[in-house]
Design goal:
Elements (H helix, E strand, L loop, with lengths): L1 E2 L7 E2 L23 H4 L3 H5 L6 E7 L5 H15 L3 E6 L12 E6 L4 H12 L5 E4 L5 H12 L3 E7 L3 H11 L5 H11 E11 L5 E9 L2 H8 L6 H7 L8 H11 L4 H7 L3 H10 L4 H5 L4 H26 L4 H10 L2 H6 L15
Parallel strand pairs: 3-7, 3-8, 4-5, 4-6, 6-7
Antiparallel strand pairs: 1-2, 8-9
Length: 356
């Protein structure tokens, strides 16, 4: 059974399991797509769609808009390239009509084995571009890497907060004896990775902050050697190549006034580095040192506690387990009230009046 509604594309209506009364579930799919420009994708991110082969990763936590971002990339390819494109999606959320390219969308809502079978069947059709909704099994990851190496452009999503975490997850998902092989394949086939998080805007609505990584020779070398933990440093030093660290994107929204500092702090992956960078890049000394804003006062307090925590950690590391006298001195140097009111660990940053 299929339906068509004004403004929405055709949609098969699945029948639910039998019960006392027959029922059907209807879900409308919009035909109006959000373009790459409307989504605010930078030219560097859009340039990834011009790649003829290789692997492009789209990362983000759950409910961070990964499907919308992939849909914008598919729409850009559909408008600019005369290619054959196949998408394998667990749930079709946007309908793409053929424009310059031929787009075949396929919904695979079953087990990972079915997704793997569908991906193998799709590759037998020799598509120019293959989109895989979620790279979550070792077999699917291996298939995507083989396809990227054999001349296809593969776009895959990974549930991870950062680009480096997405790469680490692909490697860690595979069995230990194959991790070196997967790391080498990633270093050769990866073209770029985009990670995004959604933030609440100060005036209402949401905005996406995006991290961008390119597979430069230095990045490829780190991936091949398994030094994934050093990728954030490579992203920081790769700004001249167009790379964008996540903290840069978050702080840009804070400085423009679009996003509150508390919201950006909650979404930051490395919160300690975020606080230090926000302090360094404050627009004026008055804003940081003398601003009456309670959020900035709380951030200043958090950084002060962070520095004392580092000092005490150094003492413990150098002397081993502290004695009773040492533990007493540590408690004296780090008052409990300050540790509970502002901290740079995984807890949310609390500001006076945050619940207003």
């Amino acid at each position: 059974m299929g339906v068509r509604t004004a403004g929405c594309g055709p949609r098969a209506v699945p029948e639910l399991p039998r019960s006392a009364r027959p029922r059907r579930r209807v879900r409308l799919i919009p035909t109006r797509l959000i373009s790459a420009d409307q989504l605010g994708l930078s030219r560097d991110i859009q340039a990834l769609c011009s790649e003829r082969d290789g692997l492009i990763l789209v990362a983000g936590p759950r409910l961070s808009g990964k499907s919308t971002l992939i849909s914008a990339l598919v729409d850009l390819i559909n408008r600019t390239r005369a290619d054959y494109l196949i998408t394998l999606e667990s749930e079709i959320k946007f309908l793409h009509e053929n424009r310059k390219a031929i787009v075949s969308q396929r919904e695979v809502r079953s087990e990972p084995e079915v997704m793997l079978t569908s991906a193998r069947a799709a590759l037998r059709e020799n598509p120019d571009v293959l989109v895989i909704d979620d790279l979550r099994t070792p077999e699917l990851i291996g298939l995507a890497l083989d396809a990227a190496d054999s001349g296809h452009l593969v776009i895959g999503s990974v549930t991870a907060h950062t680009t480096s975490a997405a790469i680490a997850r692909l490697i860690d998902t595979t069995p230990f004896e194959r991790q070196t092989q997967v790391a080498l394949a990633l270093s050769e086939t990866l073209r770029g990775a985009v990670a995004q998080v959604l933030l609440r805007k100060s005036g209402g609505g949401r905005v996406a902050a995006r991290e961008l990584l390119f597979n430069t020779p230095s990045v490829a070398s780190l991936i091949a050697e398994g030094k994934i933990s050093q990728l954030p440093v490579a992203i920081d030093s790769g700004r001249k190549y167009g790379m964008v660290p996540m903290n840069d994107a978050l702080i840009a929204f804070v400085q423009s006034g679009a996003v509150d500092a508390r919201e950006a702090y909650r979404k930051a992956f490395d919160r300690g580095a975020f606080l230090e960078q926000l302090r360094r890049e404050a627009s004026t000394p008055r804003l940081w040192n003398a601003s009456p804003d309670p959020c900035y006062r709380s951030i200043r307090s958090a950084i002060a506690v962070s520095r004392k925590s580092i000092t005490c950690s150094s003492v413990i590391a150098s002397t081993g387990m502290p004695s009773a006298t040492g533990r007493s001195s540590l408690r004296t140097r780090l008052p409990r009230s300050r540790l509970t009111s502002a901290t740079t660990r995984g807890d949310a940053l609390t500001c006076p009046g945050a619940g207003r």
